[in-house]
Write a structure and sequence with these properties.
The protein has 513 residues and is mainly α. Helices cover 64% and strands 4% of the residues. The chain has 21 helices and five strands. The strands form two sheets. Strands 1-3-2 form a three-stranded antiparallel β-sheet. Helix 14 packs across helix 17 and helix 15 packs antiparallel against helix 16. 34% of the residues are buried. About 3% of the residues have low confidence.
Length: 513
């Protein structure tokens, strides 16, 4: 085969592998899910009250600086940016960049539009001629309006329409309604609620707002659920949102590995968490689910790579003999004849014991995509985004908890759980990766008196540096990725340690026999 053909096949294989693996980390969040999350991040500026006096009292207590009445209802509101979740931060950032920001009256008008459409959607879903927009508004209560923060009411059920698409079946794109709602707020309320068009957002602010909101949700991927429900902690107020269930067919549309591994792993975590939560609570149920999934995945990987793992174990047992061969040719790094003789005798030893030294690479090739799929499943699991284990949400990264300095002043922030998890994971990974080297070094002590091979010493040093770099990468990734993956790596490292020790004991026993 020509060299150019080999290079072409190699590049093609790399691109194909990259394409397959990219599906493992694709977001499971549908357009509806994203719209719900966006509304949790920006759920408006109004809080609703049954009487004007209650609204004024709330305003005086700092819950708003603008009081009014919802049109065609008996409901009052106190509006203020302190009620708005992340909106206040976006406005402050835009103002800092010199972008003109809308007034509170514009946001009240937009909230009125959102509430109107929520009522209209409820009427459409009821499909009952006796239920009309007017009949609902005439008897509307604060409880029926609800809010995103309360996980109840019209705004919780239908507020997502603010960021969703039109009601037409052929057109349901993210941000589509937001554009039309903005236009409706301007045309309906300028001259009544809004005094002047200058109080409305200009094109610069609208572009900035959309960009910031899109960035806010870009890191949210915890939408892999096998049943509809309320999940997660979104926005500044950590609001739960409604997430749609994802079918097995939906997973396959994300890519073959997503359907083959990511969805099944995520579904297994979901089922076990729900089952265990009835007895031990959500946090411990999540931990048990990850523990069992880790053992299952590692056991299946062990079965799939059993021959390769056994061959690697045999190579470890041959270290004393390899050391003897290497000691015979101390100048193999500079003498071409010795280098060839060393290679020939080493190859003969491998052939005698039916070992292919490339098998360890095959094990890594199998392990890497499986790890990416597990990462995708744990990052995407809706169940892991809800609840906490010892105050630590397992869908958040260890780094985000430990580097938020305000957490260190609050013992219930989960910072100590994150720290202990990181230290245990790092320690276990260090032992798991260096243990084979330690065992091999102990075997080589018996033949050290025969001499040292500079070439082999150089090779060993390179392997050590490779191991240290891999270890550093794993620890860094465990620090920066979701906490659930830290648990997975901790349990996986303990599994590897046990596997190495058991294999070593079995090989020693066979050798003595």
């Amino acid at each position: 085969m020509k060299k150019s053909t080999k290079i072409g096949l190699g590049i093609g294989g790399l691109l194909l592998g990259t394409l397959l693996l990219s599906g493992c980390t694709n977001s499971f969040c549908s357009t509806v899910d994203k719209a719900h999350i966006l509304y949790a991040i920006d759920h408006g500026v109004c809080e609703y009250y049954a009487t004007e006096d209650e609204a004024k009292a709330a305003s005086e207590a700092g819950k708003g600086n603008f009081v009014g009445k919802v049109p065609n209802t008996n409901i009052y509101y106190a509006a203020g940016f302190s009620n708005s979740g992340n909106l206040q931060k976006i406005r402050a950032a835009a103002d800092k960049e010199g972008i003109s920001v809308p007034s509170i009256k514009y946001y009240v008008a937009l909230d009125n539009v959102v509430l109107d459409h929520a009522i209209q959607q409820k009427v459409a879903d009821a499909n009952d001629p006796s239920i009309t927009v007017e009949s609902i508004k005439s008897t509307l209560t604060v409880e029926e309006i609800g809010s995103a923060k309360e996980n109840s009411g019209l705004l919780y059920d239908y507020g997502y329409l603010k960021f969703y698409g039109t009601n037409a079946k052929e057109s349901k794109k993210l941000w589509e309604n937001w554009i039309s709602f903005d236009n409706e707020a301007r045309t309906t309320y300028i001259g009544t609620l809004i005094d002047d068009v200058a109080e409305c957002p200009n094109s610069d602010y609208l572009s900035y707002y959309k960009r910031q909101m899109t960035n806010n949700i870009s890191s949210y991927r915890s939408c892999l659920a096998i049943s509809n429900g309320n999940y997660g902690k979104y926005g500044a107020e950590e609001i739960e949102v409604q997430i749609q269930s994802k079918s097995y067919g939906y997973a396959w549309r994300n890519g073959p590995l997503s359907g083959l591994l990511v969805w099944p792993i995520g579904a297994l975590i979901d089922v076990m968490t729900v089952s265990f939560a009835k007895g031990v609570g959500q946090g411990w149920a999540q931990l048990l689910a990850i523990l069992i999934v880790t053992i299952i995945v590692r056991a299946l990987m062990l079965v799939a790579t059993f021959k390769q793992t056994a061959a690697s174990s045999k190579m470890q047992e041959l270290q004393p003999e390899l050391a003897k061969i290497q000691a015979k040719y101390p100048n193999s790094n500079t003498n071409q004849y010795e280098k060839q003789r060393l290679a020939m005798e080493t190859q003969a030893l491998y052939k005698k014991h039916k070992i292919n030294p490339l098998t360890s690479i095959l094990v890594m090739i199998v392990q890497f995509p499986v790890f990416i799929c597990v990462w995708g499943a744990m990052q995407g699991s809706a169940q892991l985004s809800s609840g906490e284990f010892l105050h630590l949400n397992l869908a958040t990264s260890i780094s985000s908890v430990l580097t938020n300095w305000s957490n260190w002043a609050h013992p219930t922030s989960g910072v100590w759980t994150a720290l202990v998890l990181f230290l245990l994971m790092s320690g276990a990974q260090t032992v798991a990766m260096l243990l084979p080297q330690w065992l091999n070094a102990a075997k080589k002590k018996k033949v050290a008196k025969l001499g040292r091979n500079p070439a082999q010493k150089e090779s060993d040093n390179k392997m050590k540096w490779f191991t240290y770099i891999m270890l550093a990468m794993i620890i860094f990734m465990g620090f920066s990725l979701v906490s659930a993956l830290g648990v997975y790596w901790l349990v996986g490292a303990l599994f590897s340690i046990a596997q190495t020790l058991i294999t070593h004991a079995i090989m020693n026993r066979k050798k003595h026999k």
